[in-house]
Amino acid sequence: MTTNNAQNATLYDHIGGASTVDQLVEAFYRNMDTMEAARGIRAMHTTDLGPTKAILKLYLTEWLGGPANYSAKRGHPRLRMRHARFHIGPAERDAWLICMDAALDACITDPAARGSIAQALAKLADWMRNDPDNAHDKAH
Known about the structure:
The chain is mainly alpha-helical.
């Protein structure tokens, strides 16, 4: 995901790079720990979120156009495969998005960048659904 400007700067660079991604992931998991709406998805995680945070930081860094360390360390994301052991339906998607949208609001100051990231993450979150009503699966 990159921006289209003359210097070909990435969204990763535009939002502030590693420090902003770190803040975003920390805010996201803080939201997951404190928001009532996230209780169900928080229960899908281990008590120690340290390793999970590190993976999400790597993933978001690469997804936003930063260094490709996620792929170098973990290979292709295969997000649906990696999350297949969890039920992810509309409620789980929505809870994840509530936490992420609040984190974006807290950490991404540029409204256009925040909106672009939020829109792309909403599509990704919907695609991650593995419930029988997921239109993505019915089309294949």
